[in-house]
Amino acid sequence: MDPSEVRALFPVLEKRAYMFSGGIAPASRPMLDAIQRYNDKVTNDPGALYRDYYDDYKAARTAYAALIGADVDEIAVTDSTGAGSNLSVEMIDPVPGSNVVFDEMSYPSAVYPWMLPQREHVERRFVKMRDGIVQLDDLAAAMDDDTIAVSISHVSQTTGFRQDLRALAAMAHEHGALLLVDAMQSAGAMSIDVHEMDVDFMSTGAMKYLMGTAGVGFLYAARRHLDRMPPHAGSQGAVQDTRSWDEREFKPKPGAERFHIGLPNLMGLAATVPGLEMLAAVGKERVEEHVLDLTGYCVAELKERGQKVYTPMEPERRAGIMAMELDDAAELDAFLIERGVDGYSYGPRFRVDPHVFNNRDDIDRFLEGFDAYVAQR
Predict the structure, then answer these.
(1) Which residues on neighbouring strands pair with residue 346, listed in sequence order?
(2) Contact, 135 vs 105, CB < 8 A?
(3) DSSP state of 115
(4) What are the structural domain ranges in the chain?
(5) CA distance 194 to 69
(6) Following DSSP, what letter does each residue of 161-198 receive, concatenated?
(7) Residue 180 phi/psi, 5° resolution?
(8) How far apart are CA 304 and CA 363, in angstroms?
(9) Is there a common fold for 3-22+283-375 and 40-280?
(10) Average pLDDT taken over every residue of the chain
(11) Which residue stretches of 305-348 are H helix?
């Protein structure tokens, strides 16, 4: 598929320039068809649904693993990015005298698990941005041999800045630390290869650039960490065989399935598989190229208009989020929504988050609306 073919599958784009994939993806026709098939089954033949529930679960794990360069048995299905982040943190021993390194823009899901009572003694080191960038030298200076983890967001939801995961992993591993990544704003938009980048744990949800739905998430755990005992257990599906259940003995499966504690969100998985299949059909490198073209075009045009843009121009330092400073961002947001353009405002910032189904016409429609808003101020 090419991006124009993907675009034709999203009804909202027939009327609106929807560019908030960093918040929630719009429904595609394949997603709506999958939900209808699920509803038909659960209404008319729930027994068949129960017998076949494993199909979408396997399809989602397989497609997501391929998308990020992982093996299927390194992928656990969760219900959110936060669930995966907490699981990752709970598998790391918070030894006395240890520390964890963040950057100041790390999302709460990457930070809050380290603030719970059992880890209150772990020192938390936050690295500030310089010139809108989290500098690798500053991150390196914050690490030492007592660092047990570097826990970051791959892409900042505040500025759109993208971290260099390969370089971060190398720096963390020099100190024996692990790299934990919140990929909610990058998975599906950027080309990721967790094996090549040497990431330890990566968590994400399906509702944004994966073009799935809320209530479904994925945790990647590198195979070298999968012999650790899971912090939670509660599902027969997490054990190696039924005999262990009969004997009341917990023998966790060797892969990431040991983290599963119940039946997954069946409707959510059904709604998520089509988006993963579309991304695979386009190819992750082509998706990234397309997204970077759109955000680069938007950044350049706004800078020509004299706007303060937080998102770096360098392609290797940005992803699918374009963020700019605007005191009356909420007013611009309301103005654009009335004109069929969807971005996002929070405080004195406005975001445009295009995806593979958007095109430059959508960016132009936003720019025309922005110009009209400025003219009538």
Answers:
(1) 349
(2) no
(3) G
(4) 3-22+283-375, 40-280
(5) 6
(6) BB--HHHHHHHHHHTT-EEEEE-TTTBTTB---HHHHT
(7) -110, 130
(8) 14
(9) no
(10) 93
(11) 329-338
Per-residue model confidence as pLDDT tens digits over 125-171: 999 999 889 999 999 999 999 999 999 999 999 999 999 999 999 99
Q: Give the pLDDT of the chain (377 residues) as one tens digit per residue.
A: 999 999 999 999 999 999 999 999 999 999 999 999 999 999 999 998 888 888 999 999 999 999 999 999 999 999 999 999 999 999 999 999 999 999 998 999 999 999 999 999 999 999 999 988 999 999 999 999 999 999 999 999 999 999 999 999 999 999 999 999 999 999 999 999 999 999 999 999 999 999 999 999 999 999 999 877 667 665 655 556 656 556 667 677 778 887 877 788 999 999 999 999 999 999 999 999 999 999 999 999 999 999 999 999 999 999 999 999 999 999 999 999 999 999 999 999 999 999 999 999 999 999 999 999 999 98
Superfamily grouping for domain 3-22+283-375: Aspartate Aminotransferase, domain 1 (3.90.1150.10)
Q: At residue 302, what are phi and psi to the nearest 5 degrees?
A: -70, -35
For the 40-280 domain, the top CATH level (class) is alpha beta
Q: What Cα–Cα distance (Å) separates residue 56 from each residue in 37, 51, 218, 263, 269?
A: 12, 12, 14, 12, 6
On whether the CB atoms of residues 102 and 127 are closer than 8 A, the answer is yes
**DSSP state at residue 343:** -
The answer to whether 231 and 261 have CB atoms below 8 angstroms apart is: no
Cα separation, 299 vs 310, whole angstroms: 9
Structure-derived torsion over alpha carbons of residues 206, 356, 164, 69, reported in degrees to the nearest 10: 60
